[in-house]
Amino acid sequence: MSLSVYVIFHDTLHEEYYENLDPDEFDLITFIAVNENIEKKYNTERFKNVIKEWELPIYYPEYQRLKICDHTGIPKSHITDIGVHRHIYENKLCKTDYIWTFHNDMYFYKGSIRQVFQFLQPTHGVTIRAENYNVLVATSTYGYNESVIYNYACKVLGIETHKNYPFHTNCCMSTEMYYNRVPVMIELIESLMNYIVYGPSYRLSICIERLWALAMACKLECLHEVLGILHAHKGQPLIEAMENSKNGTLRQYDRINV
Question: How far from 209 is each of 129, 204, 229, 252, CA to CA, in Å?
Answer without folding.
Answer: 15, 9, 19, 25
